[in-house]
Specification:
Blueprint: H1 3-15, H2 27-32, E1 40-44, H3 50-57, E2 61-66, H4 69-76, E3 84-88, E4 103-107, H5 112-121, E5 127-133, H6 154-157, E6 163-172, E7 182-190
Parallel strand pairs: 1-2, 1-4, 2-3, 4-5
Antiparallel strand pairs: 5-7, 6-7
Bound molecules: S-adenosylmethionine (SAM).
């Protein structure tokens, strides 16, 4: 496990517990989740679990993965009545089981190699929804590592011809976020 990532995020969540408070789900996920061919979902880098809980309330069984034990402990308290499995794992080396999921969501986290590995595991008609921050001169958080920011239109280039593009947008992030940042979101479906 990447001890550095774990320590960084555990400390962040301990110092800013508001990051674990209830927040609205991605509007792309809300709009498109019922296009998934079945009810098995995976939330990669689940954090506070806003998408894990949203999907569980829509009737999905959700596997949620994150490296932070602080985030997972917090989420565990909210998941008892739902069909949710929490796993502490390092996404640097994680690959989903082949054809296991109808919907995979990854938000506010960027690992291009993980997107590629995950794409290869998807079954026919499964959805992959990715939403995260991108480069923009007016981004408020200037010190973000450029490796964690998408180039304009980049998400579209990360999926090959085996995928149908259902939706793509670039937009300013939600008002509950600390810094105003430009984002990209995509919904693709495996053919
Ligand atoms: C900005 S939060 C996003 C949370 C959630 N997806 C959302 O949109 O609300 C990023 C999450 O990635 C997790 N993370 C960072 N590095 C990781 C790694 N190498 N493996 C697994 N999770 C990681 C952090 O613990 C944190 O919960």
């Amino acid at each position: 496990m990447s001890i550095k990532d774990k320590e960084k995020w555990d400390t962040k969540y301990q110092q800013k517990p508001e990051l674990l408070s209830t927040r609205p789900p991605s509007s792309m996920l809300v709009k498109y989740c019922d296009r998934a061919p079945g009810k098995k979902a995976l939330d990669l880098a689940c954090g506070s679990g806003r998408h894990t809980l949203f999907l569980a309330k829509q009737g999905f069984h959700v596997d949620a993965v994150d490296i932070s034990s602080v985030a997972l402990s917090h989420l565990r308290m909210k998941t008892q009545e739902y069909d949710i499995t929490l796993t502490q794992s390092d996404l640097d080396t994680f690959t989903p089981h082949k054809e296991a999921y109808d919907l995979i969501v990854m938000t506010n986290y960027l690992d291009r190699a993980l997107i590629r590995r995950t794409s290869e595991t998807l079954k026919k008609n499964a959805l992959f929804i990715v939403e995260t921050y991108m480069q923009h001169p007016e981004n408020e958080k200037k010190e973000t590592n450029p490796d964690f920011l998408l180039a304009p239109e980049e998400l579209k280039s990360l999926f090959d011809t085996d995928f149908t593009l259902l939706a793509y947008k670039e937009f300013w992030n939600e008002s509950h976020e600390i810094y105003r940042m430009r984002k990209q979101a995509i919904v693709v479906q495996k053919e």
